[in-house]
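G., the chain you wanted modeled:
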Amino acid sequence: MSKKVIALAILFILLFAAFSTLVVQAEFGTGWTAQYFNNANLQGTPVYTESLPTGINVNWGAGSPNSAVPVDNFSARFTSVQLFNQGTYEFVVSSDDGVRVLIDNALVWDRFIGRVLTTDRFQLNITAGTHAITVEYMELVDQAAVQFQYFQLSGGTTLTPGVVTTPGVVTTPVAGTAVYTGPAATVTGARGLALRTGPYMGASYITAIVPGTAYPIIARNRDEGIYN
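Predicted structure as tokens:
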């Protein structure tokens, strides 16, 4: 095995280690119900309903969830009841176009506007027990995608998810967590950066780092020019 391949393997292992705690702690929730409307304002009667047993993590591209739903100017309401521990949670929601989040019928995040794929992050203190979660989504034109997940921050010493940021969204680190303070890079000029378990296309896919996201730089392979 060449030195270049070894160096690349080490780089990906280190980068994966930096994100592994974040990925492992991610919760998408279970038992979601999705209702879709043939307008962008959640008005009227749903034209299509489906179950999402493993969470909200969908990308319809230029299409729609079902032939009954138009490819543009549609909306959706995702509902579920989830069990939480006591603590501080970070919620991460990505959407193209708009999205808003309600917990126990209280509005906690509102970006119900037309925009390109954007990832928002916010933190809340959650009491122990079950809580009703509603995610409302709006699609206007072109691409359609929405993802919702959350991480428990309090009570651990992990790489703070707040290191990964969206421009204009300020996340305050939680006391008692280890915060990465080294150099970071930001994804630009692409729809997303695929994070994999190894330095080759056949490696298992972990997640996509969306444009505008900053991630920690753990190591650098200087044998590969500027693409390292």
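The longest strand covers residues 74-84.

Shout if anything looks off.
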